[in-house]
Design brief:
By secondary structure, the chain is an alpha/beta fold. 23% of the residues lie in helices and 31% in strands. The strands form 4 sheets. An 8-stranded mixed sheet has the order 7-22-23-21-20-17-18-19, with helices on both faces. Strands 10-9-8-11-12-13-14 form a 7-stranded mixed sheet. Helix 1 packs parallel to helix 10 and helix 9 packs parallel to helix 10.
């Protein structure tokens, strides 16, 4: 076993501390810059050595006490040991670095100055995906362990809204014995207006007894809705539907499908919507909302513009269309934008385009946008890496990046959401 003593110099992209040993990077989880540590080398990878702390000899100035007893084993958080100020600085520095390395047509660096950051507080996340694993005589409920497929039996979670953080213990108590031993289910929980929406996914023979137990469970916990499906590709089957579930997008109430997408926090959603509304205030002509989901941006925009929404998920489009019946000027269609992106002619009808793709980014659709004459484009992204790729595509099509706002809905994780404003024009550098 190789044991080394080293000082952490910086944080890497996944939140691990990085030190140097004989010119090679050493990645050390749960350390901060300035930590003096004794480590053991566990393995070599293509980008450096991976190490584990044996002893922390001295603390760096940005170290904080983690608020969760599961930190270090649960795979949900990587950065609870960093002060809030240091965490915000690190996230913004990473984003600024990504933007700067994009460059323009002649590789000029991008510099947008100070980037605003909206951070959701602890205890605000309103959706979570727990794993349920049945053992003999007990039920494990929690999140995946760091670097493992094992499950942390969750006792607390300072990231989640209290109503969701309380669920693991309630599920353990009320559903023990429901599943055959070694059976695993995924439990997707969302807190909406009206209560908790719970969707179970996994192989389970729903006998009459199990249906009755699940229905009683829903009543005991006062769940608004409980659904089940054998696979993620199958439509959910209702088990208990006790009262309507809604959420507001602007002034419009939308009834989401079981497991329907919702921004991680209400605070993050509000920051994203407010930014988009502000940036599109001077736009003339209709607005196109791509990857629209259930209408996060569609309905706030509909207060000022005619909006056409496009989404690939059928259940989301159904929910959006149902809500749009009471709104003048909103239309929607189901369309797989990776297989059938809107073309240049279709895009040129609009005064602005909003696109909010999944983590994989906008891909082919961003190519079509770059070739269009749409004067204003707003990109929303939960993955800065794919945003950089899509932004570079737009810049190559004579769009200039003018503004970026960062939204941190993923507390204590390396993830960061952002919204960016592009304008068509032949001047690359932002004003």
């Amino acid at each position: 076993m190789t044991v080394l003593e080293m000082t952490i110099a910086e944080l890497g992209g996944r939140g691990d501390g990085i030190a140097n040993h004989n010119g090679e990077k050493v990645f050390v989880p749960f350390t901060v810059p300035g930590d003096r540590v004794r480590v053991t080398i566990e393995k070599a990878t293509s980008d450096g050595l991976r190490a584990r702390v044996i002893e922390r000899l001295a603390d760096g100035p940005d170290r904080a006490a983690p608020p969760c007893r599961h930190f270090g084993t649960c795979g949900g958080c990587a950065l609870q040991h960093l002060t809030p100020e240091a965490l915000a600085t690190w996230k913004l520095d990473r984003l600024s670095h990504d933007l700067a390395r994009m460059g323009g047509p002649r590789r000029e660096p991008i510099s947008l100055g100070t980037i605003a950051l909206h951070t959701s507080p602890a205890g605000s996340r309103r959706r979570a995906e727990f794993t349920l694993m049945a053992k003999r005589g007990h039920l494990i409920v929690g999140f995946t362990r760091r670097g493992s497929h094992q499950i942390v039996d969750l006792e607390q979670c300072p990231v989640l809204r209290p109503e969701l953080a309380a669920l693991p213990e309630l599920i353990r108590h009320h559903l023990v014995g429901l599943l055959p031993v070694n059976t695993t289910l995924e439990c997707f929980a969302t807190l909406l207006d009206g209560g908790i929406d719970l969707l179970l996914t996994g192989p389970l023979d729903l006998t009459l007894d199990r249906r009755e137990r699940l229905a009683t469970f829903a009543e005991t916990l006062d769940l608004a809705r409980l659904s089940w499906r054998a696979r993620a590709t199958q439509p959910p089957e209702p088990i208990a539907y006790r009262r309507p579930l809604r959420f507001h997008f602007g002034s419009i109430l939308v009834a989401p499908p079981p497991g329907g997408f919702l921004q991680a926090t209400a605070e993050g959603e509000a920051a994203l919507i407010a930014t988009v509304v502000e940036w599109l205030a001077g736009v003339s002509g209709p607005v196109l909302d791509l990857y629209a989901g259930c209408g996060t941006f569609t309905f706030p925009m509909a207060e000022r513009f005619s909006v056409h929404a496009v989404e690939g998920d059928g259940t989301a489009v159904t929910a959006l269309k149902a809500a749009a019946r009471s709104v003048v000027g909103v239309s929607a269609e189901r369309r797989d934008l990776e297989r059938e992106p809107l073309n240049q002619t279709e895009l040129n009808r609009f005064g602005a385009v909003i696109f909010n793709p999944p983590r994989a980014g906008a891909g082919i659709q961003s190519l079509a946008i770059s070739a269009s004459a749409v004067p204003v484009v707003v990109a929303v992204s939960c993955n800065p890496a794919t945003f950089v790729r899509d932004a570079q595509t737009l810049i190559g099509g004579d769009y200039r990046l003018e503004k970026v706002v960062a939204v941190d809905q993923f507390l204590w994780s390396p993830h960061l959401e952002l919204v960016a404003l592009f304008r068509k024009g032949n001047k690359f550098n932002p004003k």
